[in-house]
């Protein structure tokens, strides 16, 4: 399970069995960048396998999750998602009513986002070979006017030859924005899982963010973006810092968090910053543009609770958080997954 947790063990697995085997330096954003999508010939490509348990949870299901997750991985490159591919692997005996609920949900979310399902694949395996249903979604995206504008704005303040919004784009002084409360998705899934079943009013944030991010790019000045899925905010900030070669300082009091998520995390002994989200983006923004981007995000339904949580700085190494009580804590990259199988 650690090999799938998104931490150090998974990195070792990828190094030995993926990066060592494939051409890893093809394209504008190559495989070796381990970014949210790969980019070759101005075409953005990404893929996700979804194994969430249970299949239905407060605020969503495996269908809405898979569409949102894949759209968001395209979107955080600054691209406009244009099409999805959908693969089902079903366990023999799967109730077709379950399949219908999932396909209804996929249909609804992809229509609302304006990103159609264009191709797919269906397989059935023997009972017990998998747990009910695995959904795999791939997505493609293209450049957009909003992305071109974003880089025009960046060019007014900083020399850059980047053409895509990458994890490695942060420089000293850039502000860090998170577009809403963290930890909701993981806690929502856990709250309805057998053996936990605690009372909770938290619903998953799983949602496509293409419309919100397009508006933010039209303001401009976004130099780095990532969706804080597996590994949560802690992993995202550490990846930003490591790939950009800069430290990051954040303030605990500025991180939006649902009080129930905070309480549930304390009860379970897990760090809410390590819990996966499915409808949030973390971005690095030029200091000159941060307030304007924040204002724009807060006017969108998906980004009402957006907040500037800190900045990139060479005064610290790694990711450091000023705590509510006035101390400082190092935010380590997560080693394991506090809540497995939430995506
Ligand atoms: Mg991602």
Describe, in plain words, how this protein is organized in 3D:
With 343 residues, this protein is of the alpha+beta class. The protein has a single domain (2-330), classed as Alpha-Beta Complex (Phosphoribosyl-aminoimidazole Synthetase, Chain A, domain 2). It is 31% helix and 23% strand. It contains nine helices and 14 strands. The strands form three sheets. The protein has a seven-stranded mixed sheet. It has a five-stranded mixed sheet with strand order 1-2-7-5-6, with helices on one face. α3 links the parallel β5 (80-91) and β6. α2 (62-75) runs parallel beside α3 and α4 (145-157) runs parallel beside α6 (210-219). The longest helix is centred in the N-terminal third of the chain and has 18 residues, at 96-113. The radius of gyration is 19 Å and the shape is globular. 46% of the residues are buried. The chain binds magnesium ion. Magnesium ion is lined by residues 36, 73, 226-227, 229.
Unreliable segments of 5+ consecutive residues: none
Q: Architecture, CATH level 2?
A: Alpha-Beta Complex
Biggest sheet strand line-up: 9-11-8-12-10-13-14
Instruction: Give the number of DSSP strands.
Output: 14
* Element order: H for helix, E for strand: HEEEEHEHEEHEHHEHEHEHEEE
**Helical proportion?**
25-40%
What value does the average pLDDT take?
A: 96
Main sheet specs: 7 strands, mixed
Number of domains: 1
Counting H and I runs of at least 4 residues, what is the number of helices?
9
> Which ligands accompany this protein?
magnesium ion
Euclidean distance between termini CA atoms: 14 Å
Identify the overall geometry. Answer: globular
Task: Classify the fold: give the CATH topology.
Answer: Phosphoribosyl-aminoimidazole Synthetase, Chain A, domain 2
* CATH class membership: Alpha Beta
**In CATH, what is the homologous superfamily?**
PurM-like C-terminal domain
């Amino acid at each position: 399970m650690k090999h799938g947790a998104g931490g150090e063990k998974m990195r070792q697995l990828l190094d030995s069995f993926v990066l060592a085997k494939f051409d890893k330096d093809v394209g504008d954003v190559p495989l070796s960048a381990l970014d949210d999508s790969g980019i070759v010939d101005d075409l953005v490509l990404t893929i996700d396998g979804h194994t969430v348990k249970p299949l239905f949870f407060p605020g969503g299901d495996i269908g809405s999750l898979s569409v949102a997750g894949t759209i968001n991985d395209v979107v955080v490159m600054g691209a406009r998602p244009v099409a999805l591919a959908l693969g089902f692997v079903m366990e023999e005996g799967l109730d077709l009513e379950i399949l219908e609920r999932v396909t209804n949900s996929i249909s609804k979310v992809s229509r609302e986002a304006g990103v159609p399902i264009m191709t797919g694949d269906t397989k059935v395996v023997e009972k017990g070979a998998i747990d009910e249903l695995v959904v795999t979604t791939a997505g493609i995206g293209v450049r957009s006017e909003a992305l071109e504008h974003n880089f025009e704005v960046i060019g007014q303040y900083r020399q850059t030859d980047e053409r895509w919004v990458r994890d490695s784009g942060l420089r000293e002084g850039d502000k860090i924005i998170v577009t809403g409360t963290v930890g909701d998705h993981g806690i929502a899934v856990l709250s309805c899982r057998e053996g936990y079943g605690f009372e909770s009013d938290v619903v998953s944030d799983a949602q496509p963010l293409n419309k919100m991010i397009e508006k933010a790019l039209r303001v401009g000045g976004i130099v780095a973006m990532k969706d804080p899925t597996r590994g949560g905010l802690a992993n995202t900030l550490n990846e930003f810092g490591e790939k950009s070669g800069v430290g990051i300082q954040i303030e605990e009091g500025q991180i939006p968090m649902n009080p129930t998520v905070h309480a549930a995390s304390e009860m379970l002994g897990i760090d809410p910053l390590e819990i996966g989200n499915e409808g949030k983006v973390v971005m690095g923004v030029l200091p000159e543009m941060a307030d304007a981007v924040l204002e724009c995000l807060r006017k969108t339904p998906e980004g009402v609770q957006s907040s500037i949580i800190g900045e990139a700085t060479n005064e610290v190494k790694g990711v450091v958080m000023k705590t509510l009580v006035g101390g400082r804590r190092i935010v380590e990259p997560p080693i394991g997954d506090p809540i497995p199988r939430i995506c």
